[in-house]
Amino acid sequence: MVIIGTVFNLLTSIILCQPAFRDTKVRPILHYICALALIDLINVYGWNLDNYLQIVHGFTLNDSYTVASCKFFTLLNYVTLHISGWLRIFICFDRYLCLSRVQPNTWFNRSKSVLIIIFGTTIFFMLFNLHLLIFVCYRDDSGQIVRSSKLYPLYPIYNQINLVLYNGIPLFFMVLFNSMSIYHLIRLRYATIVQNSRIRH
């Protein structure tokens, strides 16, 4: 997973650096795709690498070195997952707006606005997960690093919150916007067929 994810995210980045894809004013959605490629590349080295290291070597990056590295990798893992899920929502919303409007140039479809959305999403989820950096990861009496909090029970509650924020809500909105886009395209095709048949007669 790490190798495949790295190869395809790097390939996406290389393709997006080509001259045909550099004009983000014409195609602001490219900002989302570039951000997703970067976020998903970072994400590959979070959860997936940790799972591999845990299974094969018996340790993870989260809790093997220092309390600081544990805090950093825990925060990074959650933040990148949340940003990735929500940027996918905005991509689906952007596509819906482009397909459903005669004049697709709304605030959401402008290059500057897309950058504001990406930046705002990043800041929001960094602040939302900031408690992980402050309260999570400490050394117990035996000197082992514990990836939890002394002040409040973190797991499994936060894993359930993560599941809703990263999977549940994004999946709902992606299905919703994609379904609306498909519905609009079907209606557009039907209207075109009816119009063409009237022209023939």
What's the structural blueprint in terms of helices and strands?
Elements: H1 2-16, H2 29-57, H3 67-100, H4 111-128, H5 130-135, E1 136-139, E2 145-149, H6 157-200
Antiparallel strand pairs: 1-2
Helix pairs in contact: 1-2, 2-3, 2-4, 3-4, 3-6
Signal peptide: 1-17
InterPro entries: GPCR_Rhodpsn_7TM (IPR017452)
Membrane topology: Multi-pass membrane protein
Report, as a whole number of angstroms, the end-to-end distance.
57 Å
Domain tally: 1
Helix and strand pattern: HHHHHEEH
CATH topology: Rhopdopsin 7-helix transmembrane proteins
Weakly predicted, low-confidence segments: none
Number of strands: 2
Strand content: under 5%
* Widest sheet, order of strands: 1-2
| DSSP helical segment count | 6
CATH class division: Mainly Alpha
Rg (CA only): 22 Å
Kindly name the structural category: mainly alpha
- What does the overall shape look like? elongated
Rounded mean pLDDT is 85
CATH architecture: Up-down Bundle
